[in-house]
Amino acid sequence: MKASAFAYHDPKTVQELNSLLGSLDNVRILAGGQSLMPMLNMRYAFPDHVIDINHIAGLAEVVMTPQGLRIGAMTRQRIVREHPLVLEHAPVLAEALHWVGHVQTRARGTIGGSLCHLDPAAEQPCIAALYDAVLHVSGPRGPRDVAMRDWVMSYMTPNLEPDEALLGLTLPVWSAQGQTIGHGFHEFARRHGDYAIVAAAALVSLDAGGVVRRASIALAGVDVKPVRLAVAEQALVGHVLDQALIGTVSAMAATIEMMEDAHITPAYRGRLAQTMTKRALSDALNRATGGRNV
Amino acid sequence: MSELDHAQTTRHISVTVNGTVYERDVLTRTHLGDFLRQELGLTGTHLGCEHGVCGACTIILDGQPIRSCLMLAVQANGATIRTIEGLAQADGTLHPVQEAFWDKHGLQCGFCTPGMVTTLAAVLEADPTLDETAIREAISGNICRCTGYETIVDAALQAASRMRGDH
Prior knowledge:
CATH class of the largest domain in chain B: Alpha Beta
Number of strands of chain B: 5
Largest interface: A-B, 34 and 36 residues
Largest sheet of chain A: 5 strands, antiparallel
Distance between the termini of chain A: 54 Å
Number of helices of chain A: 11
Number of helices of chain B: 6
Radius of gyration of chain B: 17 Å
Oligomer: heterodimer
Number of domains of chain B: 2
Helix content of chain B: 25-40%
Strand content of chain A: 15-25%
Helix content of chain A: 25-40%
Strand order of the largest sheet of chain B: 2-1-5-3-4
CATH architecture of the largest domain in chain A: 2-Layer Sandwich
CATH superfamily of the largest domain in chain B: Beta-grasp domain
CATH architecture of the largest domain in chain B: Roll
Strand content of chain B: 15-25%
């Protein structure tokens, strides 16, 4: 036993959760535990109160709504990865989850936990950025929605007040009459299951002539939060997607400002960003065209 | 913190481990791996890193392989757990994964073995058709510093074959 002493709470409803969050100080919320438990074991985190949200009903549902695919915060990564609605409407999320941790951590780890932990290189926030996800927050002052672009306040810091909790997110998934959608996700890490050094996710919607009508590209591991390549997206729209265009657009990924750490130089991150973007876009092209442009 | 409510730091839990129901009062901050080893005396589950990296503490919780160091014991209330001690049958007949580790020398020092065997037992019971790539992926969260993994993968492939009924 290594965690420092804390009071344990296991609310059964969101109302109970809100009232605990409104009355307690120095709280950590325990979801899947795959990030918080190591921090507790090593005493990087020493909360006075741990609120276990595993017993709250309705936080692990995956449903289609008029706004998009809504995924409860407590949905385990294993479940998300295999869920028929995810595979049908947001297959890039299932593909990204292939790179998340290992079979043992995906069995417990949750999508909401990843979006609150906010490792800069994490895959799930990258997919949330790719879709411009909406995050559903609850607290003593009532519910509120936060756009993904406003979610990351700074390094590993979500847009949550100390008395608020993430209940779920909605991915406004893509569909368009007469268009086909393709996706791709690639990352590079030293060992499989580690956080990426750089990851790239891509979505394209092509019309019958192969012209890009809509595009989204998101990178993880290049900054403290997932980065959307808006300039590259604009450069795709209105043009026939082919390998030459992918090459031009991928080069733009290398030109953004990259973070630096003791192990990875910005120049290397830039090269990875370019290569991962190229691979993600190539997969997206192949999938949107049914492999005709392999 | 100064004052902690006893009811918030200690809970009564009931867990089924390897077919036996255990009822215990646990400190809520105790992780499941420590609970299995220290409270139940089931020291077959090994604790390596205790921060979710090494995989030695893997157990099977309600059918899924999980890291027992990354879960509080109180969270296992009502759960059904299998540990390495529960894989062989009562008469001593080894689980196909254990037997294959024996046949193929899938261990040297043995420290990672409980985690390797529980992980492989869980994934192969769910799907014995896994190929070598899928098996390597399945044990990618289990670190072994002795074998170089080759004999472990050989053992897993033999176990998968036996569990499919091939001979």
